[in-house]
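explain this.
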Amino acid sequence: MGNLVRKELKLSANVLSYYFIAFGLMTFIPGYPILVGVFLSCLGIFQSFQSYRESRDIYYSILLPVTKKDIVKAKFIFVCQIEMLTFSVMATATLIRMAFLNDATAYVNNPLLTSNLVFLGYALIIFGLFNILFVRGFFKTAYYFGKPFLLFCFTGFVVIGLAETLRHIPGLETLNSFGFDNIGVQLLGFFIGALLYSLLTYVGYQKSVKSFEQIDL
């Protein structure tokens, strides 16, 4: 299994998947819908799946002495590693903003979603949606990925739109708290996001294994 994961990281992956991790730094940009950075990271992972198809990576993997379940697991491990690396960049930027830049004029006057723990929860939800909609969709055929990616794009931007909108609803203003204000609400939002990410990824993985094992390659 370890060798299969190393194959994903060193041979199969498109280099753009690694470069696009840097979009996590968009968390520092004021006056910008910073959740778009999550989408762009997913776009980088998408490039690897495109490479899988063009290089016939799935067919090559089938010839190896591994099970179909192992192939799916290795792909999911790769995807989750890229997501967590991007998330680590975003989390670091968020903590810097919360601890040292929460009074900066550019951020205080920011008309869009601020960077706090709730924002990180939203980011995890979008990553989870990518795993269950796109990655799981890819393994229905192990070849076609256009419709799954379009479905993720639509759903992901709906979540981004909701994240930007909810804080304007009376009673939900605390979702956009600056720094460590309303830390209880922020932690709740983060843990909900983490729970949904875990659930969506797990379900996506299980369904991917089931679908891939039924494909005759």
User: Anything to note?
Assistant: The chain has a mean pLDDT of 94. The two ends are 21 Å apart (CA to CA). DSSP finds nine helices and no strands in the chain. The longest helix spans residues 68-100.
